[in-house]
Amino acid sequence: MKIEFWGQEFQVNMVVGCIGGFLIAIMSSMFGFGGGPFMVPLMTVALRLPMYLVVGSSLLAIFFNTSVSTMRHYQFGNFDLYFFLAMFPAAILGGYIAPQIAKRVSPLVVKRIACLGLVLLALNLLGVY
Amino acid sequence: MKKKAGMMPWLFAAMVVLLGVNTANSEETGAQAPPQAAAAVAAPTIVLDKAELNNGGSIKVSGQAPAGKPVFLEVWAEDHTVRANRFDSEVDKETGKRPYVFYITQDMPAYYKTFVPKELQPKIDEAKKKGKKWSYSELLKDLGADVAYTVPAKAKIERYQSTLMASVVGSRGTLLDAMDDKENKKRSMQLVKARFQSIDKVVAAAVDVKPDGSYTADIKIREGLAPGKYTIVAVVDKKVKSEPATFDNKIAFPLVYLENAGTSLNIFYPFFLSLGVAIFGVLMGAGGGFIMNPLLLALFPALPHTIVAGTVTPTVLFSQGSGIYNYSKIKFINWKLGCGIGCAMLLGGFIGPKLTEMITLDQFKFAFGWILLILAALMLWQTTPGYLAKNKKEQSILKEFKKRAEETAKGKN
Asked: Closest approach of chain A CAs to the CA of B41, in angstroms?
C-alpha cells in the first residue's frame, strides 16, 4: 500500500501492519492497557512512517478496541458517572490541544515525547512504580 | 478527503450512543438493611469517643467483653452501598471445568472492614505473603473473624452463566437461579475481595483486649471514603455481640462522593490530571490510559482499581475521539492504514482473554517492559542526526515542516 504525506510517498506493508496490530491487541487486552504505546513504535520502526502521520493513525487504530473495552467495563458495572464527568471534558480538551502542539513542534520532538511515554509504561511493567 | 467526511459522523454517533448509555446509569442503589441486634446474655458493651469525623480520622472504641475471649469489630458504611462483581473463570477443582459465571451485587457496603485483636497481626502478615492470591474466606477463618462476618453475607447476589467470548464485549449471559444463604455467603466473600482487593482495606489488627475482657481500639478511617453513617459492632461470638454504635463521616465540597466507586474525591484533581495526561497521550498517538490508571491509583489509594480502569477507558475513548477529529483536520491521519490495523486489532482483542487463561502474566510483563525499552531506544535513534542523514524522506518532511513553520510565522507578522 502506498501512503502519501506532504509530497513524500511511503510504501507500507499492510500485512506486517495487520499482524503487528493483531499481536499488539492480544497482548494489550491481556495486560489491560490500550495498544497505543506499542502501536506507535510499530508504525515508526517497523513501517517507517513519518511521526506526524503515526500519531493520528495510531489513535484511529486503537479507537476500535477502546470502544469494545469501554462496553465491557460498562456492562460489568465498573463505571462511575461523577468520576467520568469530572474527567471527560478534560479529555476532549486534551484532544483539541495536543494536535495544536503537534502541528507547531518538529516531528523529532513529537517522537522524543513518544519515547518518554514508552519508557514510562516500560518502567510500570518492570514494576519500578 | 471524501473518505474522511464519511467517517466523522460515525465516530461521533458512537460517542453519542456511549454517553447516552452512561447517563442512564445514575440511579441510586437501595439502602442497607439494619443490622440485627443480637440480645445475648453477656453481650459486650461498646463506647465511641466521638460521633463525627471530618473526611476520615481516628476513632477510639472501648468497651467490656467477657474475659478471655477475642473481640472483633465489624465496621461498615450504613448509608452507601456499591456494586461488586466477579467473573469466575478459574478451573473448578472438582469438575476440572471453567465455570464462566458472572457474580454481581448492588448491596456491598461502600466501606467494610473487620478489626481483629492485635496479637493476630502475624496471621495477617502471613496472608499478605501470598500476594494477589490471598483468600478472604481463609483469612477470616484463620483469624476466627468469620463470626463477625455478617453484613456482606446478606447482600443479594445475582449470578449469570456467560461465556468467555461474550464476556469480552461485556455480555453477562443468562440469569441463573438465586443461591441459598450458605452459597450466597461464600460468594459474597469472594466479592468482598474483588471489590476491596487488598488485605489492608478489609482487615486490620487494632483491638487491644485486656485479660479482664475490657478492650480498646484506635480505628483509623482513611481520607476519601464514603460520607454518612458508619456502624460498629463488637463481636465475641456468633450470638454474642454488642449493640451497634454509629458515627458520622462528613465531607464537603469540592469533595464529592462517587456513587459507584464508593469513595469521595476532590472533583478538581481528576479534571486537571486527565487534561495533562490526555494532551500527553494524544500527542504521542495513544489515549493516555496507560499513564492515567497507575497515576490515579497512586494518588488516590481509596479508589477501587476496577472502577478506575472502567472509568478511565471511556474517558480515553473521548480523548482519542477528539484527537482523531482534530488530527484529521490537519491531515495527520491515514484512514485506510488506521482502519485496517484497527480491524486486525479488534480480532486480537477477542483472543487475548482466552490466552490469559493459559499463561501466567508476570513473566511476560517483565519481557514486554524490556521490549518497550528497546523500541523506545530505536525510536530515539530515529531522531538522531546519523539516522536522519541516511533517510531522505525524513529529511524532506523536516524541511517541509520548517517551510510551513516559517510561513505561519510570516502570516502572523
From this structure: 43
Mean pLDDT, to the nearest integer, of A11-26?
Answer: 87
Q: What is the pLDDT of residue B10?
A: 54
Length of chain A: 129
State whether A66 and B278 contact (CB < 8 Å). Answer: no
Residue, of B306 and B192, whose pLDDT is higher: B192
Name the pairing type of β-strands B112-117 and B203-209: parallel
Distance between CA B187 and CA B281 in Å, rounded?
39
ipTM value for the complex:
0.91
As a whole-number percent, the residues of chain B with pLDDT over 90 amount to: 30
Q: A 73-112 residues with CB below 8 A of B?
A: 73-84, 86-104, 106-108, 110-112
For B96-105, what is the mean pLDDT? Answer: 86
pLDDT confidence of residue B9? 53
The 3-class secondary structure across B229-288, one letter per residue, is EEEEEEECCCCCECCCEEEEEECCCCEEEECCCCEEEECHHHHHHHHHHHHHHHHCCCCC
Q: How far apart (Å, rounded) are the C-alpha atoms in residues B127 and B116?
A: 14
Q: Which three cell numbers stand for residue B407?
A: 510561513
CB contacts of A98 in chain B (<8 Å) are 278-283, 323, 326
pLDDT at B73 over 90: yes
Q: Report the relative pairing of strands B52-54 and B245-250 from DSSP bridges.
A: parallel
Note whether A2 contacts B: Cβ–Cβ < 8 A: no
Which among B85, B289, B364 is the nearest to A77, CB-wise?
B85
Count of A–B CB contacts within 8 Å?
Answer: 456
| Chain A positions in Cβ-Cβ contact with residue B345 (cut-off 8 Å) | 21-22, 24-25, 35, 61-62, 64-65
Q: Which residue from A minimizes the CA distance to B369?
A: A122
Grid cell listed for B13 = 454517533
Sorting pLDDT into bands at 50, 70 and 90, what band is A60? very high
Q: Find, in chain A, the residue whose alpha carbon is nearest to that of B25.
A: A81
CA distance to partner chain B, nearest, from residue A116 (Å): 8
Q: How confident is the model at residue B354 (pLDDT cuts 50, 70, 90)?
A: low
Greater confidence (B120 vs A122) lies with B120
Do B169 and A89 lie within an 8 Å CB cutoff?
no
* Interatomic CA distance for residues B212 and B197, integer angstroms: 36
Give residue A79's domain range. Answer: 2-125
Average pLDDT, chain A: 85
Tell me how many domains chain A contains: 1
Residue B188 has pLDDT above 90, yes or no: yes
**In the structure grid, which three cell numbers stand for residue B179, read together?**
443461591
Give pTM, 2 decimals. 0.77
In chain B, the residue whose alpha carbon lies closest to the alpha carbon of A91 is B319
